[in-house]
Amino acid sequence: MKIGTIIKEKRTKLGLTQDDLAKKLQVSRSTISNWEINRNYPDIKLIVNISNILEIPLKELLQEDSDIVNRLSEDTIIRKRISKRNKMLYFLIFVLIINFLSVVIYFSNINDISKKKEIVDAYISNEKLCIKTDLPIHKSIGGYFMDVNNNTLEVSLFTKLSFKHNEKISIPITKIPITKDKLKEIKGIRFIYNGHNYKTISLE
């Protein structure tokens, strides 16, 4: 006996309409109708619910209809394939995320400004070192180190990953131990990277 026929007989015996059963299973009435004329079959989850609602042993529902058993077997195989594909997809997404984070970390760790073209201009005004930069859009100045050597202000600049893209920065020179008289004697600004001078700006 087909599963649709079993469902119809048991539903009728319990005094349930197709609408009643549809509401209990949260499906449409036409879905129930299609099952009962054996046009299509419920999936395994619905079969379990049908078994409970219509008080039909699950074994009875399945063993009478070899077609649905075969279909459920095929569905199980398909679900396993889909599950395997989903796992592969999740793995690929995970790898892409890791690669993206690696790139972000890589660029965020390239912190020192070391190119001459990245420093557009620099000057001293009101005891502040004013610097205009030309940095990539993902970088902003995040820190600095200053010292005075032979009437030259030596500066090392560090960047951070930021899309604020601050092109100008003012640094109070008074943060380093220097007197106002010494400040007046500064003749130039030297930008340092790894101990090497990559740009010098004269203040004379």
From TrEMBL:
One of its GO terms (molecular function) is DNA binding. This is HTH cro/C1-type domain-containing protein. InterPro entries: Cro/C1-type_HTH (IPR001387), Lambda_DNA-bd_dom_sf (IPR010982). Residues 7-61 form the HTH cro/C1-type domain. PANTHER family: HELIX-TURN-HELIX DOMAIN PROTEIN, TRACRIPTIONAL REGULATORY PROTEIN-RELATED-RELATED. Keywords: DNA-binding, Membrane, Transmembrane, Transmembrane helix. Pfam families: HTH_3. PROSITE patterns: HTH_CROC1. The chain crosses the membrane at residues 88-107. SUPFAM superfamilies: lambda repressor-like DNA-binding domains. SMART domains: HTH_XRE.
